[in-house]
Design goal:
heterodimer; A: 466 residues; FAD/NAD(P)-binding domain; 5-stranded parallel beta sheet; globular; B: alpha/beta; Elongation Factor Tu (Ef-tu), domain 3; Rossmann fold; 2 domains; 6-stranded antiparallel beta sheet; 10 helices; Glutamate synthase (NADPH/NADH) small chain (chain A); 4Fe4S_Fe-S-bd (chain A); Helical_ferredxn (chain A); FAD/NAD-binding_dom (chain A)
């Protein structure tokens, strides 16, 4: 019998060992562990966990199926709402979503919903469960721009509803941030991301890579010349921010996007791949979000002494607690209340230090977080030879600046209503392209909502054309 | 789409021309833009300027010099082989295509190409010719062997001035010497110069045109990864601003570019590039023992 108060622990790779490899850190539940954990679920009449899930998976129902040892049934239940369960079970911030609402969490530990979802998805992949049920084709075509979580979710849902869907992806591999951003040790590419994308292809979705909307093809061409009845834009927020401090263009300063793309997409760390990566012995990652943790833990695995440099205190780190915990276990050094003011450069143009100031926390700012204030006279030089800037990203203007009639707000995000409709008829948008950088699951949620809205719109349109 | 190599021509010992079947890229291409090429599964993404395009045939021409591992591997591809990934067109088109043709007619424009830079200059000059505009072209290279596309350029330029550093062909001297000679001794007046070639050549040419008071556009060949503005590997300082060459450029005001910084950044991976090239040429002999660390990779 499971202890009602605490969750069945999940096995992880030993921190010392995993700090030297790119294998997945969390090993996931075994069949028996999953069944045991599922038995803790109280099967609430009004399940608050479902409210916490951006794609509203019927959590008690799939957890019940696990309890009954019907994993195939559990997989089919999840598939009604999510096309990427193996991904979401791994990377969702469950503590602030489904698990954050679980009633077990009031007195003890919340049900381990993410790990259970992951178990079901991994099991159904290994046991080749067919999840490609779809309605008959309805002859309507939808173009989806971007193959990240928003685009994949939207495409998967539309395909299930009978639409002919083509995804246009700018890079040479689909997946967006799942492929170039989140590292192998959190989200295996061959083992998890590719099979999950293949499931979406199994639904009949076509993916055209190396097609940059706004450059290779325009949205108007897709609608007027290529016969698409509607468009969904899920192009994300991939434009990196820099600090604008002196020395930032020195050799050895990278955006986290560049560093992670070289590693995750281009496999620069593997023998036989042509893309190089240049990493020194002492690396500073500036920033405190999940991307900063990913970049730091990647640098560590390449053998560098790695520091996270963050201007607020540990309590304000925007990264998931689990990720910060993992990073510290692996030996990442946290330099909190520290802010870079200049990158020092040697005569060859290489980084040879970073001038920083110490900070203290003042009054809360508009975001509710305490504002960091520079401590006068606290300047010091950090001895580093590589700096990775992980300060957040904003939407790339490539699509919006080349598409007439598509409105953006002052943050360069696409203007869209609650179901994703933009200022252009038949064009919907969702995910980071609309909200700015957020989470995988909220992007998926937006993709789902837009799929419903597109379905509604095209049904209305064919009625009015009768 | 298909990425089939329709034509392959070896222009010099080390420079190749390939015409690639890529209808979508061809249809959308304009002078000044570039593509990214990835040879095979394990290849890197390499930016190459669009050297010509035929919208009806659905082809895009690239011209490249074998300077490292990836371009050497690309040169081994033959006609009817397929390049794995070919994406574009990227970057901003040449500023001229947005200008008023009548106003352009009143301008004296000179295009200046160094070495393999003659290839990206060609579609720009061709665009002028197609719009009934005459421009001068200066082409320079280290020696006669490295002069490319001379006939093609002659067919679209009003005047073509060719020179070599060693005097083995045409004018004896660098492209800067040719321009200086044209302006100071032959009474030429230019209102604008477009300079494409090695970074060091663009730097010195920009210094000269500044002296001669000729507004100058250069096309920067920085290190790139995605080519879509996602990473900032290609960032350059132009005036007081940091720009991404892949989306804001590749063409910039040559008098505002910080060339010294750009050249330092271009050399960032010199050791790794050298190692890969040695490995390609000499096999595995340069591989690091058994430590498995892959050197400083």
């Amino acid at each position: 019998m499971a202890n009602k108060m605490s969750r069945v622990p999940v096995k992880e790779q030993d921190p010392k060992k995993r700090a030297t490899n790119f294998d997945e850190v969390c090993l996931g539940y075994t069949f028996e562990e999953a069944v045991l954990e599922s038995s803790r679920c109280l099967v609430c009449k009004k399940p608050r966990c479902v409210e916490g899930c951006p794609v509203e998976i019927n959590i008690p129902k799939f957890v019940e199926k696990i309890k009954e040892r019907d994993i195939e049934g559990a997989a089919k239940e999840i598939a009604k709402n999510s096309s990427l369960p193996a991904v979401c079970g791994r990377v969702c911030p469950q503590e602030s979503q489904c698990e954050g609402k679980c009633v077990l969490g009031i007195k003890g530990e919340a049900l381990s919903i993410g790990k259970l979802e992951r178990f079901v998805a991994d099991w159904s992949r290994e046991n080749k469960v067919n999840l490609s049920d779809r309605e008959p084709k309805n002859g309507k075509r939808v173009a989806v721009i971007g193959s990240g979580p928003a685009g994949l979710a939207c495409a998967g849902d539309l395909a299930k509803k009978g639409y002919e869907v083509t995804i246009f992806e700018a890079m040479h591999e689909p997946g967006g941030v799942l492929t170039y951003g989140i590292p192998e040790f959190r989200l295996p590419k061959e083992g998890v991301v590719k099979p999950e994308i293949n499931n979406i292809k199994e639904l009949g979705v076509e993916i055209e890579t190396n097609a940059i909307i706004g450059k290779t093809i325009q949205i108007d061409e897709l609608m007027n010349e290529e016969g698409f009845d509607a468009v969904f834009i899920g192009s994300g927020a991939g434009l990196p921010k820099f600090m604008g401090i002196k020395g930032e263009n020195a050799n050895g300063v990278f955006s986290a996007n560049e560093f992670l793309t070289r590693i995750n997409l281009m496999k620069a760390y593997l023998e036989g791949y042509d893309t190089p990566v240049r990493l020194g012995k002492k690396v500073a990652v500036v920033g405190g979000g999940n991307v900063a943790m990913d970049a730091a833990r990647t640098a560590l695995r390449l053998g560098a002494e790695t520091h996270i440099v963050y201007r607020r205190s540990e309590a304000e780190l925007p990264a998931r607690v689990e990720e910060v915990h993992h990073a510290k276990e692996e030996g990442i050094i946290l330099d909190i209340l520290t802010n870079p003011v200049e990158i020092l450069v040697d005569e060859n143009g290489d980084v040879n230090g970073m001038r920083c100031v110490k900070m203290q926390l003042g009054e809360p700012d508009s975001s509710g977080r305490r504002r960091p204030i520079e401590i006068e006279g606290s300047e010091f030089v950090m001895d580093v030879d590589t700096v990775i800037m992980s300060l957040g990203t904003s939407p790339n203007p490539m699509i919006t600046s080349n598409t007439e009639g598509l409105d953006v707000n002052k943050r360069k995000c696409i203007e869209a209503d609650e179901v994703g409709l933009t200022s252009k008829e038949g064009v919907y948008a969702g995910g980071d392209a609309v909200t700015g950088a957020a989470t995988v699951i909220s992007a998926m949620g937006a993709g789902k909502k837009a799929a419903e809205a597109i379905d509604e719109y095209l049904k209305q349109k064919s009625l009015s054309e009768c | 789409m298909s990425n089939r190599i329709v034509t392959k021509r070896q222009l010099t010992d080390s420079i190749y021309l390939m015409e690639i079947e890529a209808p979508r890229v061809a249809k959308a291409s304009n002078p000044g833009q570039f593509v990214i090429v990835k040879n095979d599964e394990k290849g890197e993404r390499v930016p190459l300027t669009v050297a010509d395009y035929d919208k009806e045939r659905g082809t895009v021409t690239i011209v490249f010099q074998t300077v490292g591992c990836s371009t050497k591997k690309l040169a081994m591809f033959e006609e009817n082989d397929f390049i794995m990934d070919f994406v574009g067109p990227l970057g901003q088109a040449s500023e001229f295509i947005h200008e008023d043709i009548e106003e352009l007619k009143n301008k004296n424009i000179v295009f200046i190409a160094g070495g393999v830079g003659a290839a990206p200059v060609y579609p720009q000059v061709k665009w002028f010719k197609e719009h009934g505009l005459d421009v001068d072209v200066i082409v320079g290279a280290r020696n006669k062997e490295l002069i490319i596309l001379e006939d093609e350029l002659k067919s679209v330029a009003k005047n073509l001035y060719v020179g070599t550093d060693d005097g083995s062909y045409g004018f004896n001297g660098r492209v800067t010497d040719i321009l200086k000679d044209l302006v100071e001794n032959q009474g030429k007046k230019y209102d604008h110069a477009v300079v494409i070639g090695p970074m060091i050549m663009m730097k010195f040419m920009s210094m000269l045109t500044k002296e001669l008071n000729i507004p100058t556009t250069v096309s920067l060949n920085t290190i790139m990864v995605d080519g879509t503005g996602m990473c900032g590997a290609c960032r350059v300082t132009v005036g007081d601003e940091v720009k991404f060459a892949c989306v804001d450029g590749p063409e910039f005001d040559g008098h505002l570019v910080n060339f010294d910084e750009a050249m330092r950044r271009q050399a960032m991976y010199k050791t790794q590039e050298g190692k890969l090239l040695l490995k390609l040429e000499d096999g595995d002999t340069h591989h690091h023992g058994n430590c498995g660390c892959g050197g400083d990779k």
